[in-house]
Write a structure and sequence with these properties.
Layout: H1 6-17, H2 23-35, H3 37-55, H4 63-79
Helix pairs in contact: 1-2, 2-3
């Protein structure tokens, strides 16, 4: 596989993170990320965000907060 450009890496990033894609594609993504600081930042940030989201235990939003949120959503939707 030829060297990937930034768009191709971003197009296939979810496949890589999900453990999908061919070994060749995965190697090409890693090669690009090793050479491209911008894509490396996206890759690292996405990985960290997923770790945070996956590690967070579900929690109940306090009643006052959820009531204000729903009221605001209803107002915004009514304005549309």
């Amino acid at each position: 596989m030829a060297m990937l450009d930034c768009k191709e890496v971003l197009d296939h990033l979810s496949e890589y993170i999900g453990g999908e894609g061919s070994d060749e594609l995965r190697k090409a993504i890693l090669l690009h990320i090793a050479r491209c600081g911008r894509c490396r930042i996206v890759f690292d940030t996405t990985g960290k965000m997923l770790k945070i989201v996956m590690d967070v235990e579900p929690f109940e939003v306090p009643l006052g907060v959820s009531a204000r949120l729903y009221a605001r959503l209803e107002k915004v939707l009514a304005e549309e």
